[in-house]
């Protein structure tokens, strides 16, 4: 309990300890340790270290076989290793108040952790032991399967999850890396997965090649490099991110309406948008992001201010551009309406979407949103966790670390013409897919 209290206390002073106005890129120590891309940022924070990382072992890497294998391998990482059972590992982390976790996304296995400075060698050694030598115990796999299937089955009752799946499947072809396997098919794949399939995937995709690891806080790069070099001796292999050269905008039908009726629901979720054709680092991406924020992000976004606050038609609504880190992404509006307000809500959403598209944003909106975005960005950099994730996102996108330092200036430099041109150039309401999922008015159950 004492160690945990010390860690909690240290975390509370993180915001005060980091000088967010200082340049980030010159302070990051970059190195390659046994093919691992390592980024270490020492800060003024005392005693605390935050870890963030990713490995190209996400669901997209398993699409040619059993689509659930990548997720199952990630779920098995904390179930013990060939050296220690899961309880021993958990006790080691608990005894020093440290945290270490894994999650599987579409593109990558995601790594996160935090600990006190003195415990970093132990935590890093455990991290690489779990990555390199998972036990793959048959009984643990069955428990993991049961838990995973239970969560997936619950999502079949979520109108939000149903709308998201239908929207994704409508805008991406099945061979696009961003395509989401339907939940029912994923459940079946989980049930069919074998230990041999997990071991084969692990051998093919887990290795130092492609591993990005970021450490931020009270940390010395040379000591980290020594610890990692020892922990990864003899470790080889890995894989690359799954990418496509064909934009989803060239392959999908446009302007369709997808209705998914789900009986006995108190709300209807909509997802309305299209494949954007943009990667995050593309020329117009930042301008479109800013324009999208004006339309539908936060309480000052047009959608929330007008459709919820003024007209009272929705529980929540917003717009975003996403899934563009490694491949071309998507743009959407997502919202929730009561069934009896659905048609009115869609009409109001269409009105705001078309006005934004046809008339653009105003100079006043742009100036206010610039201030908001820059302030939010600086707050993200005011903790070790925010810094670590920001550095990781930059390297995942293939961007430079200098992009973190120049972000405020690039936001300030955007002109009204650039923002409105990006909206028109990459979007078209007439091409957008509209998905409605829930208890639809007039539909037979």
Automatic annotation (TrEMBL):
Stored Pfam families: Peptidase_M16, Peptidase_M16_C
Signal peptide start and end residues: 1-22
Any one GO molecular function term: metallopeptidase activity
UniProt keyword Transmembrane helix, yes or no: no
Cofactor(s) it depends on: Zn(2+)
Biological-process GO terms, alphabetical: proteolysis
Domain (Peptidase M16 N-terminal) ranges: 54-148
Keyword Hydrolase listed: yes
Peptidase M16 C-terminal domain residues: 193-373
InterPro entries the UniProt entry points to: Metalloenz_LuxS/M16 (IPR011249), MPP/UQCRC_Complex (IPR050361), Pept_M16_N (IPR011765), Peptidase_M16_C (IPR007863)
Keyword line: Hydrolase, Metal-binding, Metalloprotease, Protease, Signal, Zinc
Coiled coil: none
PANTHER family attached to this UniProt entry: GH01077P (PTHR11851:SF149), METALLOPROTEASE (PTHR11851)
Name of the molecule in the record: Pitrilysin family protein
